[in-house]
Amino acid sequence: IYSFEKNHKQWEWSDLIKWIAGLKSVCEKYNSKISDEVLIPISKRLSQCLNPSLPHGIHLETLELYDAILKQSTIEDIYML
């Protein structure tokens, strides 16, 4: 998350797709609930990644990451997404 914050102005679209895919891999690998402290900024960034002006590949990776997060979330967590 913090790497997204620090270097976002230097990123290419392919870098963003790799970042999302990497985060999805971590979520799937550890298969545990994401802390609220991390879930809120992730949710903010993911919603930005669904902007219609962004490439389709980013949208697909974002939706797959949402899926991975939702599989590990409880009903109380959903309101933060």
Please provide a brief summary of the model.
By secondary structure, the chain is mainly α. The protein contains five helices and no strands. The mean pLDDT is about 80.
Overview of this protein structure:
This protein is an all-alpha fold. Helix 2 runs parallel beside helix 4. The longest helix is centred in the first third of the chain and has 18 residues. The two termini are 15 Å apart.
What keyword list fits this structure?
81 residues; mainly alpha
Q: How many whole angstroms does the radius of gyration measure?
A: 12 Å
State mean pLDDT (0 to 100 scale). 80
Q: What's the end-to-end separation, in Å?
A: 15 Å
* Low-pLDDT regions: none
Question: What is the N-to-C succession of helices and strands?
Answer: HHHHH
- Helix proportion: over 70%
- Number of helix segments? 5
How many strand elements? 0
Overall form: globular
Structural class assignment: mainly alpha
Strand content: under 5%
What characterizes the major β-sheet? none
